[in-house]
Amino acid sequence: MVSKQLVLTNPNGFHMRPASVFASAMGKFQSDITIKFNGSTYDGKSLLNIIAACIKCGSEIEIICSGEDENEALAEAVKLIEGGLGE
């Protein structure tokens, strides 16, 4: 298991478009991807779970990856979030 804490910098947070970009990218990995926010955990491969988390700009989240390609999955998640998720 690997994890990293990040701050979401998207001006509108994890709304439909960036959540879709993230879930689609994470779906390519075999590892379990979890987003931890405000004491709750959400499936990082599920668009609906990500949107339901209501993660706003400036929120601190933790990405947790567990599985055979966990390092690659975490690297991609960090790259996406730090790069603004395409926005």
Describe the fold and architecture.
The protein has one domain: Histidine-containing Protein, Chain: A (2-Layer Sandwich), CATH 3.30.1340. It has a four-stranded antiparallel sheet with strand order 1-4-2-3. The radius of gyration is 11 Å and the shape is globular. It is built from three helices and four strands. The termini are far apart. The relative contact order is 0.32. By secondary structure, the protein is α+β, with helices and mostly antiparallel strands. Helices cover 34% and strands 26% of the residues.
What is the structure about, briefly put?
This protein has 3 helices and 4 strands. With 87 residues, it is α+β, with helices and mostly antiparallel strands.
Rounded to the nearest angstrom, the distance between the terminal CA atoms is 29 Å
- Major sheet size, sense and barrel closure: 4 strands, antiparallel
CATH architecture: 2-Layer Sandwich
CATH C-level category? Alpha Beta
Strand arrangement across the biggest beta sheet: 1-4-2-3
Number of helices: 3
Global mean pLDDT: 93
| Poorly predicted parts | none
CATH H-level superfamily: HPr-like
DSSP, total strands: 4
Q: Look up the CATH topology.
A: Histidine-containing Protein, Chain: A
**Overall structural domain count:** 1
> How much helix, percentage-wise, in residues?
25-40%
* Fraction in beta strands: 25-35%
